[in-house]
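Quick one: Putative synaptic vesicle transporter svop from Amblyomma triste, structure tokens please.
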Amino acid sequence: MDFDRALIHIGEYGRFQMCVQLLACLPPILNGAHQLSHVFLAAVPEHRCFIDGCDGNGTTFHAPWAAYAMPDHSAEEAQCYLRDRNVTAPKGCAAEDFRNTSQRCDRWVYSDAEFKSTIVTEFNLVCKDDWLVSFSQAVFMVGVMIASVLFGHLSDRYGRRVCFLFIPPVFLFTSWATVFTTNYVQFTVMRFITAMGATALYQTSFVLAVELVGPSRRLISVVLFQLAFPIGETLLAVAAYMLPNWRHLSMALAAPILLLLPYYWLLPESLAWCIHNRMEDEAIAIINRAASWNNRPPVANLNRSHSCDKSCTDPCSHDPTQVPRNSSSLADLFKTARLRCRTFNMGFNWMVNAMVYYGLSLSVDTLGGTTFHSFGLLSLIELPGVLLAVITLQYVGRRISLSAFLLLAGIFCVIVPFIPEDEPWLSTTFVTVGKCFITASFAVIYLYSAEVFPTSHRNTAIGIGSMSARIGTIASPFIASDLGKVHPTMPMIVLGVLSLLAGGFTLALPETKGLRLPETIQEAENLGTPYYGSTEEERASLIEHSTYE
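--- reply ---
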């Protein structure tokens, strides 16, 4: 049974694949919204100490007595310290009632200019507890990291579709449970589980969609997927603007998950996975279902080509180098020197892509405007980046495209620290262009990873890449903030140098444009060698020799 022969029969991209692609776009939209919702759920508004005797339940942030009570020093002291009262006026609110000495406060008044309520204002995650805001997002990313590997391996062993049976209900439950959390620990735990659900569905739907289309149309799958993520981000910005209360926004994030509940019955299993695991009945059912939608004739079974030798006359016979069902292992990706290098190379690329992507997002603070407008603009900037990736992938290829985008992003990052401070618009332009290039790089690496690794280990490999990306994501805030305290130029230089290194390492990977997806470890090993033929040659041979009954 041969996957390429099956694709020839049903067509590389017909109505069936189009419907699957559209259904598969919902998980990345939801993932884009959930993964970056922390920007709004945990937004830190302006705040100052609560002044006993002056402030009440309805007190505004800009109360007249606030100027007298706040220390005239650093921003931290103005937010976390309160001047002592004179003994003669312990409840006074006039300027003469406050002394020059100060002490830490334990109650705050928050500005509601942008946000009516966030977890920061509700759980008082400011001053000595401000680190908990970043920690909560770090825990979320740990959930993404764990899900990337865990569910990637499970779907390689038990099928792509099975994830849509039990993950959506859990995803829905934890998302709704987040709305009703009453403390920081509950919120963080629910977000951790939500991250695992969102990531598992996002990753699995991507692999499922890619494995149903032929090489010449595979780019469409990646384009739709990469466009879906910034669409989710943009919709998040709109929802956050309309719902400035974090609990209401959480409800809006949870509601669309209901649409995922019937996915197990709507989506087919991966045809490539069924064929690889010699599940002929399931594969025939998928082929006939696709053939019906694509106006192709049904088949009873798929025979080997007539040019086959006697050892492959059995329709279910398979290459002895194939890994049997349920025997795929993470260790297989490290068994040979070539595969080890590719796995580490891809992992490093994923890490750098995520680190630079999120690092630039944190650095673009010169755009001005509200949080909603700036976030929405940064999300929309990603769209031309994806379209740029489409053009280069179509005409240049995977390896050169990925390398060029990483190198260009690195160059723009390295230049930023040397731009004069009196030219902020130029710095903003360079950072924005760098964000566009790193977005294009992200679009390429998803497709590239799916084409470099075999069907038997594809989801596992993408899971490793996604896990590596989370390492970069967790590290990016520390690079942007802590390194900036050492020297203002350090963040951009570090991000730029890492991007340049990744761009150089990419040139050691094989080109996969126009090649069929490898199905076994041996085929993946042969990528980039004369032993792996081009799609055009193999398709011509298949069309000439294959028969369908």
